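Protein in question kept in full:
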Amino acid sequence: MRVLVSKILLGKHFGGMTLWPFIILKDEALKNDTTLMNHEEIHLVQQLELLIIPFYLWYGAEFLIKWAIHKDRYIAYRNISFEREAYDQESNLFYLNHRSRWNFLSYL
């Protein structure tokens, strides 16, 4: 896992983002936030599962569909299957040790 720190790449509402193979954080101190780091590591696994580019296409398409449904960008973001899985399991620091492949599908 490669961690970069950049205040420029992230919007004001986000502390971290994963762009395979990097986890980008807004602040150096966030490297110690085990919940955030676990959330982003879940995204790394999801991205590898879908061979990276298809992940971003799926993520974008799902976001647009959810945005059309909910008429709210934040609600759309929180309802993307990849985000639902990551938020649901971010506190479980052992989740990736026993996670089933393609488990994000159970969050559709």
